[in-house]
Amino acid sequence: MGLIEIVLATLCLNSTCLLDEDLTYQDVSVNTRKMQFAQLAEELRQENLIITTLKNDRLSGILKDNGTLTGTGVAFDLLNILQKKFQFNYTIVLPKTNVWGSQKTGILNMLKEKRANLSAAFLPVLTQYSTDVSYSPSMDTGEWVVLMKRPQESATGSGLLAPFTLPVWLLILLSLVVVGPVIYFIIYLQSKLCPDDQNKVFPLPACIWFVYGALLKQGTTLNPMTDSSRLLFSTWWIFITILTAFYTANLTAFLTLSKFTLPITEPKDIGAKKYKWVTTQGNALEDTVTTDGSLTDIGNMLGKPYRYLDQSDRTILKQYVDRRDMMFIREKPIVEYVMYDDYKEKTRNQIEEPKRCTYVITRFSIVSFSRAFAYSKDFKYKMLFDSTIQHLVESGIIKYKLREELPDTEICPLNLGNKERQLRNQDLMMTYEIVGGGFIISAVIFVIELAVKRSHKPKQAKTSGKSNLLLNQKHTIHVNINNNYEKFGQPPHNAKFITPPPSYHTLFNPPNNENLKKKNINGREYWVYDSLGGGTKMIPMRTPSALLFQYTH
Predict the structure, then answer these.
(1) What is the pLDDT of residue 158?
(2) Could you give phi then psi for residue 346, rounded to 5 degrees?
């Protein structure tokens, strides 16, 4: 026996291989199944099924023509495929209330009481209804997203506060308050522990002002002498340098790029920030937000809705989203169609391009459910319909039908292109507020200083009145260094001319000083001599330099 035969024999002896009797049984079961399908298909041709549905925009809907109800939407496109294949008839019956299962007059009750055979609608597969109805294979996963009015500015803010988040700003303010006293305490402690070191203890206000001045890139007159104080100063300077570098880079990006963020980043933000939201009546959210009058986990996360509306999506968009600035939670394909129709309408009305995308959809989903057709319990032809629906799902036909009329590109994306833009006056609003606030604070402090000065002036006048009289009787001398006059008494002064000192060349002219030499430097004549400290000094010989030098020395 060759190697190939041994391998094949080993595989056939494995438990996964089918024996002859298993193959025979499978053939029998497949043949039996085909016979059952053929028999059910033959019986279905004689049937007139009762179909119910939900009014759910493009997914499923009803048109009434001369008293006859005609189904519309993707769900009825699939139902018509089934009808064309199995040649059955159907009659549409609407529920009293356009809801799935939240009320007793909805679709669930009709299927439960077998007043309808199946529902042609994209219904969420909810486990709490599994005992009353049966579901077809999952046709897709429905995502419920938020459609909201596009904010005027990004949620991260604009202007000077945009680069950093609130915790970062709070930590920066905390560091400004704490670092100054910490530097003072460490320098003071070091001077006490090491009294032999030449450590100069800077006062607390000077340390605080150094911390503030470093933030504004100012210099300092403080000259630390010890290594510990120098490390403290340099550490703060390095920290401020890195901080300002990050701030400058982020501020440039925020002011010049059009990256946009929404005020909500996850579902729980809706309830936490107490945003009002609406949805349509009969929506899956109505069955999941509340149960027996109490909020579920999803309901606690989102908060109670403002209202379940039995209105068209276009009406909800105009009345509640546009005018009242509410959030609209709906299935993703439907809100995409609503936005696309709104964009096309504004294009036809020749509205400017930047003003056409007035709405935006969140990138995250609120909830997700598998969606399927629902049958009455023990529906006779469930096996036939399930097989065909499964083929439609696997072939991608349902996915194609859901987005058949939508463009391939994203409709009104969150970021309308990361391109450079010019700064707006609104971007500099924080700058104006800071400047205005600074002027107001300085004016208030100035008024306080004037009030304090005036409150102390009368006391000084009373206490110093007698002393002023005595001073007026005394002979006082005021010397003005800018001229050669002495002033006596109070104004008007009696001035006396004082002879100026002799010029330097009469004092240093040889042979009076042997160390003095006359030199010409850069076209000017100077007396050059050696001072007592060992340095060399130059005395100008000509006016006006000689005159200025003479009266300043």
Answers:
(1) 57
(2) -70, -30
